[in-house]
Amino acid sequence: MAGIAAGRALAARNIDFRIFESNPTIGGLCRSIERDGYTFDIGGCHVLHSRTPQTMTFVAAALDQNINRTERRASILHQQTHHSFPLASFLSELPMRERTMAVASLAWARLRLRREKNGTTDLAHWLRYTFGERLARQHYIPYAEKLWKLSATELDAQPLRLVVPPPRLRSFFRKSDCRRSHYVLHPASGGIQALAECLAATFRNRIYLATPVTALERRGNRYFVNGESFDGVISTLPLPTLVGACTQLRSLVGGATESLRFLSLATLSIATHAPPPFDYSWVYIPSQTDSLVHRISCMNNLGVANSIGTSLVAEITYPHHTTFPISKALIRRVVSSLAALRLVDPSTIQFTIPHTFSHAYVVIDLRGQELRTLHLQAAASLGIRLLGRFGEHRQANIDEILRNAETVVGDICKTH
Ligand SMILES: Cc1cc2nc3c(=O)[nH]c(=O)nc-3n(C[C@H](O)[C@H](O)[C@H](O)COP(=O)(O)OP(=O)(O)OC[C@H]3O[C@@H](n4cnc5c(N)ncnc54)[C@H](O)[C@@H]3O)c2cc1C
């Protein structure tokens, strides 16, 4: 998406460019498939939302009529019971006993941990402080550890601190206003890839598909990508891939690149001939023992057109540099775990399709920020501009990428 967003911004300014894409199709994580009338976001279910109205207007204009606006309804499954999510917005809906214990543990955590608050950097500590021991232990820490495949004490809380507002004690007693803003956009047809397709419509001929970047070099004021000469470069490649392609960058960062961490993602697209088994956009599954899946989404509940049945997408993360052992037996195991949680009825399944993505999440562990800064500074010293989730090495979403693409391209225009 970052390459396409940059292309869109460059094309709007009549600047000539080329995009190198290693896959035979565009979209990256925002790829979708349509099969036998079913639509799936294969890089995990994606929705569009932004705190910036201009970004939403931009997205809506790009998608034209092909857009649905739905309420984002998420749940977290605990002991076979759905709790509306984010918990911070729905605390007043917890059963009375559960709510009382959660309030008590939050008040206790705030008192006990108040003095340490400012120094807190690890995720486990921050979750305990922010949500109280009970909610942290029951929901947040297990989910974080299942998703990240790391102990929450090893993860940096900073990225989450910036986006997750701490619950107010009063939200335990009355419904939160946060609910009003939980509306999201999704293409009505074509899945999330429809956004990439629309944005790229006017410059398809400038995209080299199935063309991985293998060599990048700066010579004087020129940049050579796979031997082709350019005035400037915006890299959306994962930083290790960029460093691997650019000897000059490698000499600046040394062996530090090996310590950058990522998570890979396996998804299972599940087509059923039955109506949706749940009425949430998606369901989080924090328990490690219940299922390998940490989230299952229902494309129908995002307004995706489907007259035949239901399109479900199950997500499983796995450590980068390992191979996910996709097999029929594993798919059966995944499906039966979801069936036990009543999230799918196996007798209604028409087909399943697995996919894997080597780069899905940037892992910011306690050294992550320092390593990121080192790489960003080294790239800047060579005049290489970075963009995207893996290009900038942070948990960027689509809206942020669209905004940053404008900034990066605007900056190029000023310089050249
Ligand atoms: C499960 C999941 C759910 C998400 N849900 C949402 C959501 O609901 N809303 C939201 O806004 N964001 C969401 N995101 C985040 C969103 O997917 C990313 O922000 C966005 O797709 C990142 O785009 P990108 O271009 O930076 O990276 P990518 O999409 O990974 O694209 C990188 C591209 O670089 C290409 N590439 C790699 N190596 C080379 C090479 N050597 N040469 C040439 N090309 C190369 C890849 O093929 C790929 O196309 C989600 C992410 C995940 C994992």
Helices and strands in order:
Elements (H helix, E strand, L loop, with lengths): L1 H11 L6 E2 L11 E4 L2 E4 L11 H11 L4 E4 L2 E5 L2 E5 L1 H4 L5 H18 L9 H26 L9 H6 L19 E4 L6 H8 L6 E2 L7 E4 L2 E4 L2 E3 L3 E2 L3 H7 L1 H7 L7 E12 L9 E3 L10 E4 L11 E10 L8 H13 L8 E15 L4 H14 L3 E2 L11 H18 L1
Parallel strand pairs: 1-8, 5-14, 12-18
Antiparallel strand pairs: 2-3, 4-7, 5-6, 9-10, 10-11, 13-16, 13-17, 14-15, 15-16
Helix pairs in contact: 1-12, 4-5, 8-9
The chain binds flavin-adenine dinucleotide.
Q: Structural class, judged by helices and strands?
A: alpha+beta
Bound molecules: flavin-adenine dinucleotide
N→C terminal distance: 24 Å
Mean pLDDT: 90
**How much beta, percentage-wise?**
15-25%
Please bin the fraction of helical residues: 25-40%
Radius of gyration, in angstroms, nearest whole number: 22 Å
Detail the poorly predicted runs.
none
CATH topology of the domain at 2-29 and 47-70 and 186-258 and 365-415: FAD/NAD(P)-binding domain
User: Major beta sheet, specifics?
Assistant: 7 strands, mixed
Total strands: 18
CATH architecture title of the domain at 2-29 and 47-70 and 186-258 and 365-415: 3-Layer(bba) Sandwich
Can you tell me the CATH class of the domain at 2-29 and 47-70 and 186-258 and 365-415?
Alpha Beta
Shape: globular
The total count of helices amounts to 12
- Written as H for each helix and E for each strand, in order along the chain, the element string is HEEEHEEEHHHHEHEEEEEHHEEEEHEHEH
Q: Can you describe what's shown?
A:
This protein has helices at 2-12, 53-63, 87-90, 96-113, 123-148, 158-163, 193-200, 239-245, 247-253, 328-340, 368-381, 398-415; strands spanning 19-20, 32-35, 38-41, 68-71, 74-78, 81-85, 183-186, 207-208, 216-219, 222-225, 228-230, 234-235, 261-272, 282-284, 295-298, 310-319, 349-363, 385-386. The protein is globular and about 70 Å long. With 416 residues, it is α+β, with helices and mostly antiparallel strands. The strands form six sheets. Strands 6-5-14-15-16-13-17 form a seven-stranded mixed β-sheet. A three-stranded antiparallel β-sheet has the order 9-10-11, with no helix packed on it. Helix 1 crosses helix 12, helix 4 crosses helix 5 (123-148) and helix 8 packs across helix 9. It has twelve helices and 18 strands. The mean pLDDT is 90. Among the domains are: 2-29 and 47-70 and 186-258 and 365-415, 3-Layer(bba) Sandwich (FAD/NAD(P)-binding domain); 74-181, no CATH class.
